[in-house]
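Annotated sample (chain length 188).
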Amino acid sequence: MSRRIFGGSLVAGTGVLAVRRLRSTGFVQDRRKPQSRVAILHEDSYSGPLDSTLIEGIRLFDPNVRGKTVLLKPNLVEYIPGAEVDTNPRLVGAAASAFLALGAKTALVGEGPGHQRDTVLVLAEGGLGAELRERRIRFVDLNRDEIRKVPLQTSFTGLDCLWLPRTVLTSDFIVLMPKVKTHHWGGP
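Output written by the structure step:
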């Protein structure tokens, strides 16, 4: 073992002991929540009973969505035949239905693709448009939504305001629904 590894191990060990000691005296408080805010739900495919799985998963966190507007924001990039680039349409539709089943006044989907700017084309080719029509869920193109000026509370960016879509600002809950990246940059 080299001196560098030994010295680093000694410093790390001392730090762990110091934090443990400070916690035991009450000087440092553990601010972690007693319950995890992450749930891992299992489904074998997108063709399974996603609605009921999502309802069960959302209930784990007991959000008060009754009478509220829930905006789902999937990841829409572009449609590439044979490649899953966007958030799966069935998952988005099931999430909207799940929030409605849990008492949300409105569940809608909004996105503003930055790669393929023809949002209607992305909705049609990727299947999200059909999924939302079948479930009677409204879609808002956030690239074309009415925008509102929102003053910033800090000057870190050098900007004094941002212009944000009205739908984002008027929603009670915003649920980000990213697509787990599976392209070549993701690694093995």
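Annotation: The chain has two domains: 1-31, 33-186.
Annotation: Residues 1-31 form one domain.
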